[in-house]
């Protein structure tokens, strides 16, 4: 309830300042104008298509990143040599903002979908790797011993003990990885084109349509919030309830 | 002999990179269906010995054999019940109990039926679908015991299984464990630091000396297989073990607190006969 009132207040202030500011409509559009554009965009399919395109990209990139992250995490956890070598490099790579890879990606793959996919993936991979590694490392010795005395080993051991035991850490890894790849996606689309919400932003800028730009920003915020609050928070809470972790 | 521990030696490397001998020339024979307890001060290597039997760790010298076969790696014929239950929090009670059975490739229905039967034996039928965090400490330990028993192991290895529980729960579980032991005829190898527990439960108590861990004395408990032992007998045995252990405890304390430390028992409260009025 408090949130709704607060958002309402922002809306009112926005509407009023925009009308009183004296700036031209295309620079500082009023809320009503933005909502109109947003609505029309959703109806005409311009914004909906862009959303679909962006979501499709991120799902693909994100999935690849998770798989690579888990596999790398496994090797870093399992072999000391890999930890000392690759583990160190991954920590360094993690500190590079993923958009920094874009110039390289353009040269390697050209200014196309694949380049965007590349930076989306790479934005999430390293975080996922780091989190998976620490998740695997923090599996209590007790669980491992128990499983081994029952004769578990190899892939079964990994599937029934190591993976489920590190689920809490993996979920928080997913959450951060998602945030990184979502940002990388927007930056990539903004620069790379090829459709999607980011490109719609760029289009709005070149056409001088700030109402469109702000509409897209709202969509970006909404999707980000939904994914974080609905998908990941719920996942996290489910695990906490099941495991009896109090917070 | 069924379980044979033959000249086993084990050492670890400590923080300052020195080799420390933990177990020195251990020889133990356990009969099939026996109940043997190991007592000793903390750090005497009793848990290490249990892990060696479980196959979780490797011996440096000597051999551990079960029914003539050398122990090389962990296996479902020797199941461990740890101090903390170690139930998987992501599985229900039933799934925890069937974990080992599924590994044995037992059909689902059969595994479930078997698990339910065992859970009934440990009085947990009502908690089949509960998650571990919903159970009390004693219930968790019961599940852990059920999970071990359902495998029908040849040897049940218990590593201070009741030491984290409160007194009442422990007493109840002692009784239940004895019932289970008599019913299933499983061989139990029990590690504890609680002398009373060892005397109460087992047929044979092995007292460990510490640093390095070796066998100081083996004491057979006179038992009346069917029922309760007179308190005086139990207490007497307890006192005997305590006096054997005293020297060891003193050794540990001296090492930890300096040489001038001396540990004396209070003879007023517990004299040898266990009878407070005998010296009046």
From TrEMBL, chain B:
Its EC number is 7.6.2.9. It catalyses: a quaternary ammonium(out) + ATP + H2O = a quaternary ammonium(in) + ADP + phosphate + H(+). It is an enzyme of class 7 (translocase). One of its GO terms (molecular function) is ATP binding. Coiled coil: none annotated. Keywords: ATP-binding, Nucleotide-binding, Translocase, Transport. It comes from the Bacteria. SMART domains: AAA (SM00382). Gene3D superfamilies: P-loop containing nucleotide triphosphate hydrolases (3.40.50.300). The keyword Translocase applies. Residues 3-235 form the ABC transporter domain. The complex is composed of two ATP-binding proteins (OpuCA), two transmembrane proteins (OpuCB and OpuCD) and a solute-binding protein (OpuCC). This is Carnitine transport ATP-binding protein OpuCA. It comes from Peribacillus cavernae.
């Amino acid at each position: 309830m408090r949130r709704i009132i607060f958002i309402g207040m922002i809306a009112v202030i926005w509407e009023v300042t925009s009308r009183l500011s004296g700036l031209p409509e295309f620079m500082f559009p009023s809320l009503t104008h933005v909502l109109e554009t947003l609505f029309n965009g959703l109806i005409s399919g311009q914004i909906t298509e862009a959303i679909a395109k962006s979501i499709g990209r991120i799902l693909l990139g994100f999935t690849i990143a998770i798989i690579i992250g888990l596999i790398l995490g496994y090797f870093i956890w399992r072999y000391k040599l890999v930890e000392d070598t690759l583990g160190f490099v991954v920590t360094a790579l993690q500190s590079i903002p993923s958009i920094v890879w874009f110039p390289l990606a353009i040269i390697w793959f050209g200014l196309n979908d694949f380049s965007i996919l590349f930076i989306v993936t790479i934005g999430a991979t390293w975080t996922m790797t780091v989190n998976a590694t620490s998740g695997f490392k923090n599996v209590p010795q007790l669980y491992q011993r128990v499983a081994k005395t029952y004769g578990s080993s190899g892939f079964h051991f990994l599937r029934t003990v190591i993976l489920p035991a590190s689920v809490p850490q993996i979920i928080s890894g997913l959450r951060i990885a998602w945030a990184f790849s979502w940002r990388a996606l927007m930056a990539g689309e903004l620069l790379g084109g090829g459709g999607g919400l980011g490109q719609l932003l760029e289009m709005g800028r070149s056409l001088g349509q700030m109402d469109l730009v702000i509409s897209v920003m709202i969509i970006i915020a909404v999707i980000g919030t939904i994914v974080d609050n609905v998908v990941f928070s719920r996942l996290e809470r489910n695990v906490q309830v099941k495991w009896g972790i109090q917070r | 002999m069924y379980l044979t521990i033959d000249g086993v030696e084990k050492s670890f490397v400590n923080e300052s990179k020195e080799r420390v001998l933990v177990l020195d020339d251990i020889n133990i024979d356990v009969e099939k269906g026996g109940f043997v307890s190991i007592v000793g001060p903390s750090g005497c290597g009793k848990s290490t010995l249990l892990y060696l039997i479980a196959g979780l760790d490797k011996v440096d010298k000597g051999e551990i054999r079960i029914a003539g076969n050398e122990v090389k790696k962990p296996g479902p014929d020797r199941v461990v019940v740890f101090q903390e239950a170690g139930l998987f929090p992501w599985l229900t009670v039933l799934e925890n109990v069937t974990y080992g059975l599924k590994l044995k490739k037992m059909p689902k229905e059969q595994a479930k039926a078997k698990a339910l039967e065992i859970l009934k034996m440990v009085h947990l039928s009502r908690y089949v679908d509960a998650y571990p965090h919903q159970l009390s400490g004693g219930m968790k330990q019961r599940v852990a015991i059920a999970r071990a028993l359902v495998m029908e192991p040849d040897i049940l290895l218990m590593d201070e299984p009741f030491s984290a529980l409160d007194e009442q729960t422990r007493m109840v579980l002692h009784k239940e464990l004895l019932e289970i032991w008599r019913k299933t005829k499983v061989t139990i190898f029990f590690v504890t630091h609680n002398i009373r527990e060892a005397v109460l439960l087992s047929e044979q108590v092995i007292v460990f000396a510490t640093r390095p861990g070796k066998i100081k004395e083996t004491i057979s408990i006179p038992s009346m297989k069917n029922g309760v032992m007179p308190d005086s007998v139990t207490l007497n045995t307890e006192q005997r073990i305590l006096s054997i252990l005293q020297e060891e405890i003193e050794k540990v304390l001296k090492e930890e607190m300096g040489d001038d430390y001396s540990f004396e028992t209070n003879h007023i409260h517990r004299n040898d006969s266990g009878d407070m009025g005998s010296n009046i």
